[in-house]
Amino acid sequence: MDIHEYQAKEILARYGVPVPKGGLAYSPEQASYRSTEIGGSGWVVKAQVHSGGRGEAGGVKLCHSDGEVLAAADELFGKRLVTRQAPAGKLVYRVYVEEATDISRELYLGFVLDRASETILIIASGEGGMDIEELAVRAPEAIVRTVVEPAVGITEFQAREIAFGIGLEPGQISDASRVIRRAYQVFTDLDATMLEINPLVATGEGSLLALDAKLSFDDNALFRHPEVAELRDRSQEDSREAHAEDRGLAYVGLDGDIGCMINGAGLAMATMDMIKLAGGEPANFLDIGGGASPDRVLKAFRAVLNDTNVAAMLVNIFAGINRCDWVAEGVVAAYTSLSVTIPVVVRLAGTNVEEGQRIIAESGLPILTADSLAEAARLVVEAKQNAAVPA
Ligand code: GDP
Ligand code: MN
């Protein structure tokens, strides 16, 4: 789960990482009021969307009067901000107003969970502001990588070494070491999977500030942090995925037009491969899990059809714990109650398969059936193409 920049900064501030003074606004008037409240003579108005690259997309605006703040916010509200990371755009309905910072250096500080080595990787650089991926290509030598064993935690020595490694002044080392250790604490305390402070800046007076912050959490650990779970903003998520997740379905939205409903993640992956091999493009990954009731199958069906790109659907069930008759009942119920008009191909195998096939056949619905996965994939791609040809 991702959160907004201002939320991440609130958390960092709570842990003692310095951040600029700022306030959240839900309207241009409120944004202008925030600038008066904050004081000073320069402000930055920042679109709050779950995406980086806002600066180059016009989502970060430097202003010099409360009139400029009002105008900047007015331009941002209600806009779909299209960034390099979010090509479909993300809706802006809150902006964060901050006092402008006098920047002397932009640095990079990131923490990621390295699942392969079961450690926490700290990535730092004396060159901040741009994407770390870009920097890794352009100047890989400018990146300092430090592995932290979570059972031991970060040592003061490691933090100081990072600070020296990114070329900070001797007078800034203690400050930087404190920022690095506190940020690490945020990361581990809250079960984050990614924390990126980009840029971490050195101001004109030489102090350090987190000017931007991105924080993602491990969904499977959210139950341990209700105060974090509550920060979720569904408007920033893929609406297809949010719908499915609310119903306990393992769903991932994709760009194709063949909807998939499958049991087991492995079979789902294999089915997506077979669809591609047959010349189609899957619209989603969906694993209905084991022992799925007809009602759960109906819900899964609805989740797939929620995607208006879906032009044909493939149901592929290899039932062990599942029951083909339950799946068939769910498919028939969904087909009728959801007034399905697109081609549907069902391939059933395993527990109660004869009963399942009988239910489909006796329903009288134009559901296509197949015996093998290869045949099912070929059939669904063909059916989609035929359906697309106007009669
Ligand atoms: P991102 O583009 O989504 O990563 O948004 P950031 O919050 O990182 O802002 C992008 C860039 O805008 C930063 O790298 C800075 O160069 C610039 N910027 C942001 N806030 C300030 C500020 O207070 N003062 C100045 N001078 N520049 C800022
Ligand atoms: Mn940034």
TrEMBL record:
<keyword id="KW-0418">Kinase</keyword>
<feature type="binding site">
    <location>
        <position position="263"/>
    </location>
    <ligand>
        <name>substrate</name>
    </ligand>
</feature>
<feature type="binding site">
    <location>
        <begin position="53"/>
        <end position="55"/>
    </location>
    <ligand>
        <name>ATP</name>
    </ligand>
</feature>
<protein>
    <recommendedName>
        <fullName>Succinate--CoA ligase [ADP-forming] subunit beta</fullName>
        <ecNumber>6.2.1.5</ecNumber>
    </recommendedName>
</protein>
<feature type="binding site">
    <location>
        <position position="101"/>
    </location>
    <ligand>
        <name>ATP</name>
    </ligand>
</feature>
<dbReference type="GO" id="GO:0006099">
    <property type="term" value="P:tricarboxylic acid cycle"/>
</dbReference>
<comment type="function">
    <text>Succinyl-CoA synthetase functions in the citric acid cycle (TCA), coupling the hydrolysis of succinyl-CoA to the synthesis of either ATP or GTP and thus represents the only step of substrate-level phosphorylation in the TCA. The beta subunit provides nucleotide specificity of the enzyme and binds the substrate succinate, while the binding sites for coenzyme A and phosphate are found in the alpha subunit.</text>
</comment>
<dbReference type="InterPro" id="IPR005809">
    <property type="entry name" value="Succ_CoA_ligase-like_bsu"/>
</dbReference>
<dbReference type="InterPro" id="IPR017866">
    <property type="entry name" value="Succ-CoA_synthase_bsu_CS"/>
</dbReference>
<comment type="similarity">
    <text>Belongs to the succinate/malate CoA ligase beta subunit family.</text>
</comment>
<keyword id="KW-0816">Tricarboxylic acid cycle</keyword>
<dbReference type="GO" id="GO:0005524">
    <property type="term" value="F:ATP binding"/>
</dbReference>
<dbReference type="GO" id="GO:0042709">
    <property type="term" value="C:succinate-CoA ligase complex"/>
</dbReference>
<dbReference type="InterPro" id="IPR013650">
    <property type="entry name" value="ATP-grasp_succ-CoA_synth-type"/>
</dbReference>
<dbReference type="InterPro" id="IPR011761">
    <property type="entry name" value="ATP-grasp"/>
</dbReference>
<keyword id="KW-0067">ATP-binding</keyword>
<keyword id="KW-0460">Magnesium</keyword>
<keyword id="KW-0808">Transferase</keyword>
<dbReference type="InterPro" id="IPR005811">
    <property type="entry name" value="SUCC_ACL_C"/>
</dbReference>
<feature type="binding site">
    <location>
        <position position="98"/>
    </location>
    <ligand>
        <name>ATP</name>
    </ligand>
</feature>
<feature type="binding site">
    <location>
        <position position="46"/>
    </location>
    <ligand>
        <name>ATP</name>
    </ligand>
</feature>
<dbReference type="GO" id="GO:0004775">
    <property type="term" value="F:succinate-CoA ligase (ADP-forming) activity"/>
</dbReference>
<keyword id="KW-0436">Ligase</keyword>
<keyword id="KW-0479">Metal-binding</keyword>
<dbReference type="GO" id="GO:0000287">
    <property type="term" value="F:magnesium ion binding"/>
</dbReference>
<feature type="domain" description="ATP-grasp">
    <location>
        <begin position="9"/>
        <end position="226"/>
    </location>
</feature>
<dbReference type="InterPro" id="IPR013815">
    <property type="entry name" value="ATP_grasp_subdomain_1"/>
</dbReference>
<dbReference type="GO" id="GO:0004776">
    <property type="term" value="F:succinate-CoA ligase (GDP-forming) activity"/>
</dbReference>
<dbReference type="GO" id="GO:0006104">
    <property type="term" value="P:succinyl-CoA metabolic process"/>
</dbReference>
<feature type="binding site">
    <location>
        <position position="198"/>
    </location>
    <ligand>
        <name>Mg(2+)</name>
    </ligand>
</feature>
<dbReference type="GO" id="GO:0016301">
    <property type="term" value="F:kinase activity"/>
</dbReference>
<comment type="subunit">
    <text>Heterotetramer of two alpha and two beta subunits.</text>
</comment>
<comment type="pathway">
    <text>Carbohydrate metabolism; tricarboxylic acid cycle; succinate from succinyl-CoA (ligase route): step 1/1.</text>
</comment>
<dbReference type="InterPro" id="IPR016102">
    <property type="entry name" value="Succinyl-CoA_synth-like"/>
</dbReference>
<dbReference type="Pfam" id="PF08442">
    <property type="entry name" value="ATP-grasp_2"/>
</dbReference>
<feature type="binding site">
    <location>
        <position position="106"/>
    </location>
    <ligand>
        <name>ATP</name>
    </ligand>
</feature>
<dbReference type="Pfam" id="PF00549">
    <property type="entry name" value="Ligase_CoA"/>
</dbReference>
<dbReference type="GO" id="GO:0005829">
    <property type="term" value="C:cytosol"/>
</dbReference>
<feature type="binding site">
    <location>
        <position position="212"/>
    </location>
    <ligand>
        <name>Mg(2+)</name>
    </ligand>
</feature>
<keyword id="KW-0547">Nucleotide-binding</keyword>
